[in-house]
């Protein structure tokens, strides 16, 4: 059973007087009269049964008991202030759930999330991902998305598709470009990549993820007019991230969705041996729940931030 505490005003008055060693300064700080401060100190001393302050020749000193208790009292006020701050902050916090593909989450969204958190520290976020679960919904007539939002408690979906669903907002179009480890273009390599025809001497990495519209070496080689490369050979992966990891490791050359490879390119783990991109028919789209009740503000803020990041990506790409 907790002990009964004296009124908070009395404790505040004592702490202020003890800090200033002045009734007058304490009264100014707490915006009360000097008499009110004296009354609160007298009440507290009566409640505790001993003297807290000793007054001699217009100076104030703390009794031994007051001196020993003061640090704990100040700690208590600090904890109380922090608790009130947390309660006030909670009232204004938002929490949104974002659903996207594993590759987009790990290679595009997560490397940028620190900028969102710095800009909007009052919004908590949960990132969910399941490429198999979302693929069917993005290829339907749009009715499946309403059910998807409702059953999975999702606020925003970022998907890769043709954008034929109602309510789809294009985030950005994408291109595919060959990427590889810098070691494969180095002069020290036994057959460095200098032109597309050199692919005949390198292992091709294939992204065969379970989604419609992923880049194909057959399409790229045909558009570039490259012959003599066996597109059936190489290493095949059922996940974009695995293919990108193999490329970083120097296992071969990958035809990658450029935005997903960009963080590795910027870090120097990947390079573009020949800048011959092809535009893909599919793009990344944003879907929002139509009736988003409590999370509408946070959802709007997050979607606006996504647009800003997409525009930033476009400006950086134009410079390059």
TrEMBL record:
One GO BP annotation is: DNA-templated transcription
Where is each HTH lysR-type domain found? 6-63
Q: Respond yes or no to whether keyword Transcription is given for this record.
A: yes
For this protein, the record's CDD domains field holds: PBP2_GcdR_TrpI_HvrB_AmpR_like
Its keywords, alphabetically, are: DNA-binding, Transcription, Transcription regulation
Under InterPro entries, the record lists: LysR-type_TF_proteobact-type, LysR_HTH_N, LysR_subst-bd, WH-like_DNA-bd_sf, WH_DNA-bd_sf
Q: Give the highest taxon in the source lineage.
A: Bacteria
Which molecular-function annotation in GO is an example for this chain? sequence-specific DNA binding
The family note in this entry says: Belongs to the LysR transcriptional regulatory family.
Q: Which protein, by its recorded name, is this?
A: Transcriptional regulator GcvA
